[in-house]
Design brief:
The chain is mainly α. It has two domains: 154 residues, Tetratricopeptide repeat domain (Serine Threonine Protein Phosphatase 5, Tetratricopeptide repeat, Alpha Horseshoe), CATH 1.25.40.10; 58 residues. Helices cover 86% and strands 0% of the residues. Helix 5 runs antiparallel to helix 6. The longest helix is centred in the N-terminal third of the chain and has 30 residues.
């Protein structure tokens, strides 16, 4: 059992048997933290299911919104930043609404930076880069993806690096540098193979075919 639930139970016992009613707000906070983590995790499960089945579940967004509210009330900037990131991804990836995604992704970037959460920051930068690419802002997109990639290399996230290299390869192609793009895909393929990232490998194959046609 989560230690926060154990702690809340101990506080309940103190209130019930010892008459210490003033400890109950602390129990509420402990359980709010558990609920926030659960809401975030449930939303992420639904998103992973969407990526494989391409069937949207409106509950996904509700989970992320509830998580962000709870984290904010707790003063947990790291958790809130992650919840805002997934809110942005829902709009960008599930709904295909890049404009609606931007405020959430920018907020995630701010909170992750403030909290020193480099993993979530790398994700927010990646998806801001994707948004910039879709808007035709190729230089900005490249800068964002390169910053994200640097963080992922530092954090030893090879599958994440590989995914970013795919994005950078597409950018190279859009900038008239298909040979550079193919070289990036070669590195991405090595990283994906070592990480067992089959879904990323599929993206690499698609990008290689697209650059080859270009």
């Amino acid at each position: 059992m989560d230690e926060r639930i154990d702690h809340a139970q101990e506080l309940c016992d103190r209130a019930t048997f010892g008459g210490e009613e003033d400890v109950l707000p602390e129990a509420d906070l402990a359980l709010d933290g558990v609920e926030a983590d659960l809401e975030l995790a449930r939303g992420k499960v639904l998103h992973a299911r969407f990526l494989r089945r391409r069937t949207a579940d409106e509950g996904e967004l509700a989970h992320f919104r509830r998580a962000s509210e709870l984290y904010r009330s707790l003063g947990d900037r790291r958790g809130e930043g992650e919840a805002w990131f997934w809110t942005g991804v829902y709009h960008q990836v599930v709904r295909g609404d890049g404009e609606a995604a931007l405020p959430a992704l920018h907020r995630s970037r701010e909170l992750a930076t403030a909290a020193g959460d480099r993993r979530t920051l790398s994700y927010a930068l990646r998806h801001l880069g994707i948004a910039a690419h879709m808007a035709g802002e190729l230089g900005e997109a490249r800068a964002l993806l390169e910053e994200s990639t640097g963080l992922r290399r530092e954090l030893a996230l090879p599958a994440g690096v590989a995914a970013n290299l795919v994005g950078l390869a597409y950018l190279a192609g859009a900038e008239g540098r298909p040979a550079d793009g193919l070289a990036l895909l070669d590195e991405a393929a090595d990283l994906a193979a070592g990480a067992g990232a089959k879904a990323v490998q599929e993206s690499i194959d698609e990008a290689r075919a697209a650059l080859g046609r270009g």
